[in-house]
Amino acid sequence: MAAPGNRFLAKLPEAEYRNLLPHLKPVKLAFKQVLHESRGPIDHAYFPISAVTSALTTMSNGDGIEVATVGFEGLVGHTVAIGGKTSPNKVIVQIADGGLRIEARILREHATRGGPLQNLLTAYDTFAPRSRNWSPATARTGWNSGAAASS
Predict the structure, then answer these.
(1) Whether 95 contacts 32, CB under 8 Å
(2) What string of pLDDT tens digits covers the 151 residues of the chain?
(3) Structural domain for 51, as ranges
(4) What is the pTM of this model?
(5) Domain total in the chain
(6) Cα–Cα distances in Å, from 64 out to 54, 94, 110?
(7) Could you tell me the CATH number of the domain that includes residue 94?
């Protein structure tokens, strides 16, 4: 079987990857394409292959700042598979090119069966940037909720 081109998918055992494969749709990701809106529903998860995405948070003054970058090493929208329903950040494409897309409900169904996919998603969530909780920018100027930064 051909390598998936995405390191997250490549870490899955072959049988698990084969189970996901029929649901992974190749997509072209366009520059500045919005994949998720902040606090918006997650309809699809994306596995960049040659594209690069950026997660942005809006500070209390309305400015946006990049808090995470995801490329071929990971995925965007993973929180939907572990119980999340909305995106903590706006996610846009910074470097246009290819990736794979899967419906959020399908990824969730596969993840809730347990096993390697669920384990990998849990580990990814543990080590993914926790931008929804804290970043240097939000610590200094506050969340888009208008909360004041603590010193």
Answers:
(1) no
(2) 556 799 999 999 999 999 999 999 999 999 999 999 999 999 999 999 999 999 999 888 888 899 999 999 999 999 898 888 999 899 999 999 999 999 999 999 999 998 999 999 988 888 765 444 434 443 443 433 333 333 3
(3) 7-127
(4) 0.82
(5) 1
(6) 11, 14, 34
(7) 2.60.120.10
